[in-house]
What we know:
Layout: E1 4-16, H1 21-33, E2 40-52, E3 56-60, H2 67-74, E4 82-87, E5 91-94, H3 107-117, H4 122-136, H5 151-165, E6 169-173, H6 181-196, E7 200-204, H7 208-214, E8 217-222, E9 225-231, H8 232-247, H9 250-258, E10 263-270, E11 279-282, E12 287-295, E13 302-309, E14 314-319, E15 328-331, E16 334-341, E17 349-358, E18 369-376
Parallel strand pairs: 3-7, 3-8, 5-6, 6-7, 11-18
Antiparallel strand pairs: 1-2, 1-4, 8-9, 10-12, 12-16, 13-14, 13-17, 15-16, 17-18
Helix pairs in contact: 3-4, 3-5, 4-5
This protein binds adenosine-5'-triphosphate.
Family: Belongs to the ABC transporter superfamily.
InterPro entries: AAA+_ATPase, ABC_transporter-like_ATP-bd, ABC_transpr_TagH-like, Bact_Polysacc_Export_ATP-bd, P-loop_NTPase, Wzt_C
Domain ABC transporter: 23-248
Amino acid sequence: MSELLVEAQGLGKAYPKVHRSSDRLRSLGRLLFSSRGAERISVLRDVDLQIRRGESLGLVGENGAGKSTLLKLITGVLTPTTGSVRVRGEIGALLELGAGFHPEYSGRDNVAMAAALHGLSGTELRERLPEIIDFADIGQYIDEPVKHYSSGMVVRLGFAVIATLKPDLLVTDEVLAVGDESFQKKCVQWIENYLAGGGTLILVSHSMYHIQKLCRHACWLRGGEIAMQGDVFDVTQAYLAYHERKSASVAERREIAQAGVEFSVIAVAVNDDESERPALLELGDALRIRARVRSRDGRTPGVMVGIVRADGTAVYGTSTEIDAVAPERVAEGEYLCELQLDGLPLLPGSYRIRVHPMDTEGVRIFDTIERSFVVRGASREFGLVRLAHRWNHVCANGSGS
Ligand SMILES: Nc1ncnc2c1ncn2[C@@H]1O[C@H](COP(=O)(O)OP(=O)(O)OP(=O)(O)O)[C@@H](O)[C@H]1O
């Protein structure tokens, strides 16, 4: 097994609780005069993490979940309040924008200082400077003070320095989001080569695309704690499914409450599972959505089923009325039907299923039940669905998947 580069155990960080200036005085007072110490707010708790040489870990989580704090503890910018973290090897860190650059000095001087800090000799720097300047690609700004740079330029310079130093461990916090499209591509390509050459990465990003593209493992931080850790697709898809559930519109729930109860959904099963856990499918699997519906006065209900992507894009919808069928009566006032979709062509991602009972005429909707499912897989195709396709007049080039 390869060498352990990062090992965090029971890692935690807490800050004194300070809301207003009066609190600040009170905290100071407590610090000075009380043995209890200041009241603290814990922003990271019980983090156990191991990263081996050659691994790539994506850190995901909502704003304020503690991702940057964890990176700062790993890189030694912050000291832990509890637990410990050990790091072996040279770290290249791109944390806060411009951290480590002196605003009054030119890009060129900053590069020289950064290189010296990382132990590069004057000769090595002279050799690598053209490469760094070329990677940053900021034109004559290289000789301007960094304080005149746009945020994109600062990131370009920071990444260029790191790229040339090729550290054992690369730690980056949302840097890809700052640069423009072509620089993002260049960075992604560089990171891919760096990983292929045995590099180790910790990447914080809100872009699941970048996380899935660059990382094999992921860790989801929620409220300062690890909510899930493991294979990148499992973690990112669970994270997206969590967001879907969170954003299920309040208006929709109100609509359900206000609707009459002539027809209501008793239960929905997705691939025979009635629980609310997201169903896990592989691209091309079958999807079966079974609904049991109660009819107050015994009339036959209709059932509508819709599928939407995590971002709300409609994928497909149909109803018993559209397909000229009716649910089967299974008991007094109880009906059952199942919609089966064979060989689901949806690309990997998170989706929601909406099931609505309707009146027999297919005019009024009475209830809404949501379930989610995740299509897993590492396909690099993009869009919503896999369209049957083939390439003509081509030959294999041996790369890609
Ligand atoms: N110096 C500090 N003093 C007090 N609280 C802090 C301090 N630094 C960070 N925090 C708090 O710690 C929590 C975690 O912040 P952190 O920056 O690690 O989150 P994050 O997951 O990186 O968020 P984002 O996605 O918005 O960058 C937040 O609630 C933040 O307000």
